[in-house]
Amino acid sequence: MGKLIYATNCSLDAFIEDAHGSFEFSEPDAEVHQFWNDMLRQTGTQVYGRRLYETMAAWETMPVDDEPAVIREFAEIWRGRDKLVYSKTLEAVSTARTTLERAFDPDQIRELKAGDEDLVIGGPGLAAAAFTAGLVDEIGLMFLPVAVGGGKPALPTGRQIDLQLIDERLFPSGAVYLNYAVSS
What we know:
The protein is α/β, with parallel strands linked by helices. 26% of the residues lie in helices and 30% in strands.
């Protein structure tokens, strides 16, 4: 049975965007990028909300031939995965292997989790809905060595989520990856 993994980069003070909506601070260096490549290569469907999907869709057609190997590899992984997008406002998807649904459907996620592959969910709003439905099995947070002082929080607010540390990794850049199992 697969797991639903919420994975994201965030500031040390746990924001995925700063107060102005920018996430430029979260651009990974080559070693962190390779870590994400290795993690994503082991997963199947990627589940997105509209905003993150629109950001990530650039990988579909981005010319990467002259980019470093880690960037070319990420583009290949991203293009090779099924994507499920939940959005009430997106008119159509622009990428291959992508399904658009109008409303978050916990039963659809349960059905996907019943398969053999892990799923990755991105975007804190959509992840909050998955947390509320009791669907998130793991959280993977890549804390970057910057504090932004406010913005969009990486984790849902107003609720307690009990966690058990299952993995950690420190990068030379000062980034720290913490992987937690969500306690039932």
